[in-house]
User: Which sequence fits this backbone?
């Protein structure tokens, strides 16, 4: 890792995370930096670390000409234009699991606090008053809690409210039934059903076009009188305008809010209601969560700037840390297989068919496809091609990609990646696997069996399968002072495929001599990094 990589941290993260970043990178910690200055200086940084306030939009991303990575110290990515980042090959990574417990506990705090008027009573007592009548609360026990979005946080809220003796109902059309059962929540097929039955509604979805305002005037109208609401997800999922009206009319009995449509929220009309408990987006603000978030994002940014794949990359298929360990050598193999094509052929690619067989088929093979495309396009494009934008770049070039998985073993290999690259008459077929020691090797090229370690410089030759061809070929290499480190010949009909790993460079003159050997049909020099 070079000290040249520069990171800008534009919002507060834990000291432990900053220390980790500083041990490897040049770090500027500018919590609360203004937009104009940020736009001005972003061009000098390789990575940007934000929380939920910094807007990483098209304008900022375009100004960040050196940016390779955006780290979201936290979960929600609604302040990041992921598509704009993806188009430019900028990796976006977040820390989705680091603050879920804290957010679930904050939800509980807001729920209980609003049911028991804790915040209001606290202010009342500290102002020198003593009375109990205005603060008569309501038990959570025996109530129906409606959870909208049964993901990481929603499910933790489910198990927590359940322990209070509640009935839990949930609406989440995007998860399997088994998840409702696991968390003891009754599945509701529609939001309307949930809204009609719940005494307390708590929202835990991402904020997007579909969820913005999903609890609005229509939903309040059909809700129970005096319904309680909690929003510890994102401002606007419960429409603030509709909530103000529902509080005024008494339809809503209380609200607990950690997040607001506009943040920082200073003049919000909801602050005027006694039965609304508010906190300034504190869901993730615990010592434990901030330590986890800070350290995790630091680790991810350091890895990302090293060019390594990191878990929790938002603009790549979702891969867990444990899956990444299994996939890493296959990623290297797929990338090397992809890099073969343009080193052997010059015609543009129309279509690629990839097939993954054996145990590997159970993994997130989308990442292997991306690695293959990165290998294919890296050598021939002036723009940066990386794991993040390789698919987009392939799409832009009109390359159609098809993937197939089969869990059974093919050709006796425990795992096999096979690729067919089609173009106008210059197709390439290649298959590869890992050795027992986990090293990538190529086992087939254009239906010739082979054993090729894709490392360093390799000569791939087609020759007539007869005596007097291979000897003169290797003699030419000897004459040029080039050592052969490995060689394998595979036959098919009257032809051989000769694969020769050589130490050092092979210049154009030597290549011309090799091509001129009687019986040699073709010679390619391929280089693997
Ligand atoms: P998650 O992705 O694990 O879960 C979200 C769930 O919402 C998913 O199960 C998804 O299927 C469901 N969903 C999506 N659209 C839906 C819809 N239209 N109707 C019903 N369900 C829908 O996310 P998470 O980690 O649980 O985070 C939940 C929310 O909490 C996010 O908005 C996140 O930004 C926010 N958050 C807030 C804080 C805070 O400080 N207040 C901290 C962490 C996370
Ligand atoms: C998150 O999405 O992680 C939360 O909003 C918390 C935060 O941004 O700190």
Assistant:
């Amino acid at each position: 890792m070079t000290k040249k990589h520069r990171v800008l941290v534009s919002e507060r993260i834990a000291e432990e995370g900053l220390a980790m970043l500083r041990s490897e990178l040049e770090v500027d910690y500018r919590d609360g930096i203004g937009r104009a200055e940020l736009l001005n200086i972003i061009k000098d940084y390789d990575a940007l670390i934000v929380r939920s306030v910094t807007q990483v939009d098209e304008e900022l991303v375009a100004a960040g000409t050196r940016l390779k990575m955006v780290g979201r110290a936290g979960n929600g990515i609604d302040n990041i234009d992921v598509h704009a980042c993806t188009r430019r090959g900028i990796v976006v990574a977040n820390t989705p699991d680091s603050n879920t417990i804290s957010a679930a506990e904050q939800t509980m705090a807001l729920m209980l606090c609003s049911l028991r008027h804790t915040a209001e009573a606290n202010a009342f007592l500290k102002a020198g008053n003593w009375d109990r009548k205005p603060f008569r609360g309501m038990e959570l026990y025996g109530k129906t809690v409606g959870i909208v979005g049964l993901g990481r946080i929603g499910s933790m809220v489910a198990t927590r409210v359940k322990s209070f003796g509640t009935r839990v109902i949930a609406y989440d059309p995007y998860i399997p039934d088994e998840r409702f059962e696991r968390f003891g929540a009754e599945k509701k097929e529609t939001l309307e059903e949930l809204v009609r039955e719940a005494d307390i509604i708590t929202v835990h979805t991402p904020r997007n076009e579909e969820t913005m305002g999903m609890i609005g005037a229509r939903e309040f109208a059909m809700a129970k009188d005096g319904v309680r609401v909690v929003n510890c997800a994102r401002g606007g999922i419960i429409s603030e305008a509709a909530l103000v009206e529902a509080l005024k009319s008494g339809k809503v009995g209380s609200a607990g809010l950690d997040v607001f449509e506009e943040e920082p929220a200073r003049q919000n009309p909801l602050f005027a209601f006694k039965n609304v408990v508010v906190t300034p987006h504190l869901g993730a603000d615990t010592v434990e969560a901030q330590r986890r978030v800070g350290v995790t994002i630091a680790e991810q940014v350091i890895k990302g700037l090293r060019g390594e794949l990191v878990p929790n990359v938002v603009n790549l298929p979702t891969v867990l840390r444990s899956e990444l360990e299994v996939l890493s050598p296959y990623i290297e193999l797929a990338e090397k297989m992809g890099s073969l094509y343009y080193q052997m052929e010059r015609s543009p690619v129309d279509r690629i068919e990839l097939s993954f067989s054996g145990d590997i088929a159970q993994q997130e093979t989308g990442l292997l496809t991306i690695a293959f495309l990165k290998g294919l396009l890296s050598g021939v494009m002036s723009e940066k091609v990386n794991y993040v934008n390789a698919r987009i770049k392939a799409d832009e070039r009109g390359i159609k990609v098809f993937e197939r998985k089969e869990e059974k073993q093919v050709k006796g290999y425990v795992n096999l990646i096979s690729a067919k690259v089609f173009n106008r008459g210059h197709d390439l077929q290649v298959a590869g696997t890992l050795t027992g020691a986990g090293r990538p090797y190529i086992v087939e090229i254009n239906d010739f069996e082979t054993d090729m370690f894709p490392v360093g410089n390799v000569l791939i030759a087609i020759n007539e399968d007869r005596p007097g061809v291979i000897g003169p070929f290797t003699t030419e290499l000897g004459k040029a002072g080039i050592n052969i480190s490995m060689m394998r010949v595979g036959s098919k009909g009257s032809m051989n495929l000769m694969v020769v790993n050589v130490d050092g460079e092979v210049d154009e003159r030597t290549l011309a001599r090799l091509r001129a050997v009687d019986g040699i049909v073709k010679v390619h020099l391929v280089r693997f990094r």
